[in-house]
Every structure is written in C-alpha cells, then in structure tokens.
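Exercise (ungraded).
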Amino acid sequence: AHTTVDISGLLQHVKFQSSNFENILTWDGGPTSTSDTVYSVEYKKYGERKWLAKAGCQRITQKFCNLTMETRNHTEFYYAKVTAVSAGVPPVTKMTDRFSSLQHTTIKPPDVTCIPKVRSIQMLVHPTLTPVLSEDGHQLTLEEIFHDLFYRLELHVNHTYQMHLEGKQREYEFLGLTPDTEFLGSITILTPILSKESAPYVCRVKTLPDRTW
Amino acid sequence: DAVSVLPAPQNLSVQSTNMKHLLMWNPVTRPGETVFYCVEYQGEYESLYMSHIWIPSSQCSSTKSLECDVTDDITATVPYNFRVKAMLGSQTSAWSNLEHPFNRNATVLTPPRMEVTEHGLHLVIELEDLGPQFEFLVVYWRREPGAAEHVKVVRSGDIPVHLETMESGAMYCVKAQALVKAIGRHSAFSQPTCVEMQGESLPL
Amino acid sequence: QEFRFGSCQVTGVVLPELWEAFWTMKNTVQTQDDITSVRLLKPQVLRNVSDAESCYLAHSLLKFYLNTVFKNYHSKIAKFKVLRSFSTLANNFIVIMSQLQPSKDNSMLPISESAHQRFLLFRRAFKQLDTEVALVKAFGEVDILLTWMQKFYHL
C-alpha cells in the first residue's frame, strides 16, 4: 500500500481480507496512533478517477470496514484507501494493493449433512450463497461463480485407507460399510484453476446397528 | 571475466522420465581439484525474442554434481535450451550448449507401480506418487467371462483409495495408467494385478 | 484441460500454473503502476465477447503481449528477481499463440472486425500513455487478461 510517506507512523498494513466474497478492509495503527486517532475509508474501481467515501466508515476508531457491497462485482478490480487523522500530526493516507475478490477470496468449509444408515453413509452438500449478485439480481452460489468447482469427499476407514468420492453434484453415498462402526468423513471444496481449496468440513458418524439378525 | 582456460563440459544430454528432467554432462577433471558447474536455460520465448537472455537454473547455479534436476525450470511445453560451464576458483570455461533443445512432451512415461489389497470386501489401490502433474486411470473388473470393466480416475498417488465393494469369494483384477494433461499423453497400462476376495467381511 | 476460444482449441497449458507465476510478480509489478485511474483492458474490451470473436481477440492480445509488452518489459523484470515466473508466462503464451488459428474465411469478417475494434480500444489506451508507464500498466493487467481467458478454459 502506498500514497503518502508515513513519517508519523500512524497507519500500516491497509489490505483486504476476503472469505466467500465477504470483503473486509483492515488496517493497523502505527506506533504513534492513539485511541483518539480516527480513520476514514474511500474506495473505487481500478480505471476510475473518482474516489467514493464509504458511508459508515468515516472518522471511525475501529480498524476494519466492511466493503462487501461496494466490491461485490467479482470480476472487477478495486482499490481502497484509509486516511488516519490524529491530533498534532499530519494526516496519513495509505492505499491497498489492487484487489480482485475472484483471486483473493478464500473458500470456507462447505455446509454438509452426514446421514448414517446401516451399511452406508449419505452426505448432502448444501449450496453456499455469496454476496455476489447475478445480472438479474439474485445471489450467486460458489458453484455459479467457479465453473470448475467440485467437492472432494473422503471417508477414513480406521486409519488404514480412505474411500474417495468427488464430483460437482451435491448428493453422495459411501456404500458397503460395516454396521455399528464409527467413520470420519471430511468434505472439501476445490476450485483448481485458481488453486483454491477450503478447509474440510468434518463429520464423525456411526453406522446404525444391523437389526435384521 | 576470467580468461577461459578450463575446457567446457561435453556431451550434454537430458534424461526425462515421468516428467522428471535430468540434465547430464561429462566431467571436467583437474587432479586434486573440485570443479563446479553452473547451469542456465532459456525457453522458446527467450530464444525467439531475447536470445541473449539466459536464466540461472533454480537448482544448479553452482554444483559439483554431473547432473542437474531441471524439472522446476521447465514450466511450458515448448523447446528449452540448456548450457553448462565449468568453474574452478576464478577460472571458468566457455559455455557448452545442449545440442538439441528439449521439450517435456518427449518425457518417457512408465506404467505406474501400484499395490492392490482387499480390506474385508473393499478393493483398495495405492499408486506411486509421481507428482502434481499426474492423474491415474484405474480399470478394474471381476475375473469371469463377459465381466464389465469399471473405470475410476484417481487424482493423486500414495494414498490408499477404495475402488469398490466386492462380493466375497470372487477374484478381481486391476490395472492402471498414468495421465499427464500438460503434455496430453499417457503411459501404457500396468500389468493387471488380481486379488481374491476372502470370505465374509471382517470388522473394519 | 484446454482452452476453447470458439472453434480454436489449445491444449498443453496448465492455467493454474500461469496464475501461480503471475501471483509471484503481482504486487511487485502492480505497485509500480501509480495511475489507478487508467485501465488499458477496460471492461468494454473484454465484456460479452462471443465465442466466435474470442479466438481473434485472444490472438491479437497475446501477440501484442509477446511482441511488445513482454519483450520491452523484460529488462525491468530481471531486477525484480522474478525471471522464472516471467519465463513461465511468456513461454505458455507462446504455446497458446502457436495453436490459435483464427479462421480467415470471408464469412467471419464482421466477427474478426468486431474483435479488432476491441483490440484497437486497448492499443489506443496503451499508446496514449508514456511507453514505460504503458508497459508497466499492461504487464500489471495480465491478471485481467487471465481472468477473461479463464472463461474459455475447460478442465
């Protein structure tokens, strides 16, 4: 981040943090910032001249600002900048690096329901809505944004081997399991083109006892 | 730069198997001395647009070895030039160039090693880890006349992967081939490995 | 995995590797570009490009990047110690270029002309800037180019 040389040490580390397209601008105070230091946020699209003030983040004391709505076009590129004002020292402004949520956002673990049966375990992956809007205004899911997205499911069988399933669909079932036995399932979202991989959703489930004997 | 009194290394060649590329050359010998070597490369872009530009190899900017793993330097499916020079103290040899540029699509792909085991009624395969560029096509079938073949793509090696839940007492066979999308080629199939499913399923 | 720019098919390029290469240079390169109010690959250049147009536009843009941007920007890259990543990008752009064969059929003239107008929009913006500034900006916009190309990439 760069704009004015910060000789007074008021402001540092101005950057975006993004997860599932929730884009939060964060920064740190510097060695000379005090509890009275106030911060104001502006943002714009790369290629546009005019900076826009973010309502709700003018002369604030907190060191973060939610710019999700302002930066919700995931194929666009943005800049944001913070101005720090503190009594007795000149104000300092610092800008982020060029931000693209498509490149920068991390993927949260999926929301999954694990359903044990007698000789199988069913796994239902629920769609993840994002703040990104389609052209007709509906919220897009991760699947709609990343056309290469797929799910990887692993069922760990008593530390010796794993059962693997993967695909783009949302319903999966691991078959041929032993009744009344505990298994560890882990489900991950992958978007290989941008090398994104979520942390796994983990479920520990026990198959039902077989009462047919 | 230092006057070139050392002879340049000779007989540069590249040996490439399963997308591991090894540049090799003959030694330059000085009795009682240790000669070092420096490797540089250029891709097709550099040779076409800026032939004076050579890039130091990521692994061997100064090595005693007579070979250099240039796998990480080759990051496109285009011809690459390599050159090596010898260094001894302040003395350096002339550069010696690879006679013919090397393209990674010439790599030798070998049938993957695999281990097939059965766990209760589960047929499990573990393939050798050949690196991120590789996927594996696994074909398995029940050994009986007219049995259908089943196909599964396994993304990475060295993890035991469950293929199928089998019927007890039956014999099942498995074979696999390695796929490299970056060069659009695949290996031959491995020899089939057959496993007999034991009796009733064991507690897992 | 391949690119399909309309009828033009390109194999042998691993797009994630291009992204990785650019990401090692991104902040170094984009920080050199102080003019945040000018964008060369404007939305109008790349928005709503039809499949049929895409081969022509990809060919023009990649050719410009190889012949002009990369070639003249290279001297700066050497000092940033990202020669290797630059080489990965440049050599993979050559792989793509070598396989793009836009049709020369007369029936495609309106489409190729439309693609050409988009390319001219980009090149005009490039020429309006001082050459050094334009080179830095164009190289910093490789991620905009990759984001567009990604729409035509199939695993």
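Further reading is listed at the end of the chapter. For now, observe: Chain B touches chain C through 22 residues (CB under 8 Å). The first strand of chain B starts at residue 13 and ends at 17.
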